[in-house]
Every structure is written in C-alpha cells, then in structure tokens.
C-alpha cells in the first residue's frame, strides 16, 4: 500500500502535511486478532491521536517543540480483519516504503505482534540492528496454544532473526518458566522487574548502533495504564517510563524505528492510558529526531 492509501482521519498533534519534508513517519497498526485476554487494542491508534490534543507541543523535559521537527502522520494501515498473516505482510510492506524514503517509522499499536514485521523490515535496512523492549511480558513463546502468530510470540521471532545478544528486555514480570529460563540460556540481555537503571547501564554499549525501541504500555503498572489487554500488577510509573525514553534520547544510540503498542481504550473510560501513551509518543518523536 502507498502512503496516500492510509486512513486520513484524525492526526497526532502538529503533524506536517508535507511527507517529503518529514524525517519521521507516524502510522497506526489497528490489529488485535491474536490477543489472549481482552481485545480492543485495534482502537488504540485512533484514540491516542484524539487525546493528543490535550498535550502541549512543547516538551520541557527535552526543551524541544514539535514545531522544531518535521514528522508526518500517515494514519492507520487498513488491515484485513482477523487475518494475522496478511496483516503482518501489509505492515511490513508499509514500513519498507517508509525506510525506502529514508525516513524513520514510528508505529502505534495494536497488539504486540505488529512489532514483528516492522523489525523485520528495519533489520533489512540496518543489519547491525539492536532491539530495546520495554514490557510486562517476555513475549518469548515460540507459539501460544499452537499458534505461532500471537502477541505472545514477537520477541521469540525477533531473537531468532537478530540473535539473542542483540535483544535487550526490561521490566519483564510475567511469562512462563520456560521463557525466563530461555532468556538466560540463550543470552538475551534480560532485565526483569526494573527498567530505568539497567537501561542506563547498557546504553553506552549501544552507542552508535541502529536501535529499534518497542514499548508495550503494560510495562506501566495498571494504576497508571489500566486500558490495556493484559494488565500486569507490579509495573513501573509513568514518570519512570518517560525518564527511560529520555535516557535513550540523550544517549549515543541511533533510533531508526520505534513503536508503542497495546493501548485498549475501552477498559479506561477516564482516558488515562491513551493520554500517557500520547505523551510518551510526543517524547519519542522529539527525542529520537536528529
């Protein structure tokens, strides 16, 4: 699909209408075909855009304004309902076009399986790629009840593609015994329960490297983000998540792609979850731009 085939409704605040001038392309991946508990994350991208209007365009954390950068919101990729394989294909094709235009893709999910085709395409362009993964769940299962295309499997696929030494996981506090054991056995940079300090510790070793950052909103404690499909108590605060994005932004890593996934608005009538997601996205847009 082409950029001009994407959904053209509500856009994230301060999006430019000039695709050619944009350094970053924001896009939605409205898919929740494989979730194991509560559906609804397919409505996340649109709601995150809608609530972005509550934000200022200026970030006092980074002393940057969205007017200082050029980014283009391409809208949502139209995905075939209930068909994960075809949806993965369409996401990959779209991200490939973004990269061919020498632009940075930043996606809004949707369930976490959507990260897999995005990373595949980014890896094709950046073979030295490393992935930073912030999440409550390990997502390291080879399949979920026999299904290899599941929101419980994307990091397993990414490890198989990049190699365990190029995958960095933070905040993990849920998974099977086998997932935790395999993370240690295979040599993944695995940091359960905590995010900020272990992330700060590893960033110098990634300096100069192309990095893809994937954030599952359920890395936050449900007190900060109840609107998600698989809430997991014991998570980090919204302040720590923002500080983690800022640590990446201020480091020497080269963020070549990113996403934020698993916002399910129906389970949060207060809009607390999409608002925090929108703020994190604002900091990603500002912090990851050159």
TrEMBL record:
<dbReference type="InterPro" id="IPR005925">
    <property type="entry name" value="Agmatinase-rel"/>
</dbReference>
<dbReference type="InterPro" id="IPR020855">
    <property type="entry name" value="Ureohydrolase_Mn_BS"/>
</dbReference>
<dbReference type="InterPro" id="IPR006035">
    <property type="entry name" value="Ureohydrolase"/>
</dbReference>
<dbReference type="Pfam" id="PF00491">
    <property type="entry name" value="Arginase"/>
</dbReference>
<dbReference type="GO" id="GO:0008783">
    <property type="term" value="F:agmatinase activity"/>
</dbReference>
<comment type="similarity">
    <text>Belongs to the arginase family. Agmatinase subfamily.</text>
</comment>
<keyword id="KW-0378">Hydrolase</keyword>
<keyword id="KW-0479">Metal-binding</keyword>
<dbReference type="InterPro" id="IPR023696">
    <property type="entry name" value="Ureohydrolase_dom_sf"/>
</dbReference>
<protein>
    <submittedName>
        <fullName>Agmatinase</fullName>
        <ecNumber>3.5.3.11</ecNumber>
    </submittedName>
</protein>
